[in-house]
Design a protein that fits this description.
alpha+beta; 5-stranded antiparallel sheet; 6 helices; 16 strands; elongated
Length: about 240
């Protein structure tokens, strides 16, 4: 008798459910709440190279996930790969499959550097450009034995450089140089941007970003172009969409 009473109480206390438009709702007193069963979602894999992302998309994601997949280059050093929203009533959320972070990128910090630091930075942290060669040549001729003498009219700066063994001359330096520091994924061409170049009386060279940060957009476009090329078949077949 007691068992039957307990079962009846449980039955009465159980919330009532309703099927509306193929979706299940249950009574919470003054309103209805939709019943959404827990969905097991894949754990997002954190990657450190674009090559690993390409490999996993081709060999794993497209084999177990319903296409299309979306790749978003949301920052110059970060990429996301995710699915479209679910087509079932209880699956409105996207599955975020992979994220890629650019690591071990030297980067570049603007400001003044002493002669030796500048020489090392220019050789190790920049891709080749004509203006990179120009700066390296300028640094190799600046007279650091007795300090540096500069002339500056606000638009053009003149610096004392070595000429031969014993002679010195004044040479105008380019106020703006185009350089490619390593700032994004190393698989892609680094974005070229303008830098203001200055030399002070301590023989320190200063480089300051002069493009208003537009290099970030160019870096994202370079990453997107690389991914479109490497995933060309998947893009043409509408299996993968790549966006900024």
């Amino acid at each position: 008798m007691l068992k039957e009473a307990i079962q009846e109480i449980e039955k009465i206390s159980r919330p009532k459910t309703y099927e509306i438009g193929g979706r299940t709702f249950y009574d919470v007193g003054t309103s209805l709440r939709e019943y959404r069963p827990e969905v097991i979602r894949p754990e997002k894999k954190v990657l450190t190279s674009l090559d690993s992302l390409i490999t996993l998309i081709k060999t794993e994601a497209l084999k177990v996930q319903k296409p299309p997949l979306y790749i978003q280059v949301d920052r110059f050093d970060h990429v996301l790969c995710f699915t479209q929203t679910g087509d079932e009533a209880h699956e409105f959320l996207r599955n975020f499959l992979y994220s890629v972070d650019a690591i071990d990128v030297p980067g570049f910090k603007e400001g003044f550097m002493d002669h030796e630091t500048a020489m090392i930075a220019l050789r190790c942290k920049f891709q080749q450009t004509d203006d990179l060669d120009y700066l390296l040549n300028l640094l190799s001729t600046i007279d650091i034995s007795a300090g540096t003498t500069t002339k500056d009219n606000g638009a053009t700066q003149t610096v004392q450089v070595k000429q031969g063994i014993a002679f010195k001359e004044y040479q105008d330096i380019k106020p703006i140089v185009d350089l490619k520091p390593y700032r994004t994924f190393q698989e892609v061409d680094q974005p070229e941007s303008a830098f203001l170049c200055r030399v002070n009386d301590k023989c320190e060279i200063g480089l300051f970003e002069a493009d208003g940060g537009m290099w970030r957009l160019q870096a994202r476009e370079n990453v997107k172009a690389f991914l479109v090329e490497q995933l060309s078949d998947e893009v043409q077949n509408n299996q993968v969409y790549i966006t900024l």
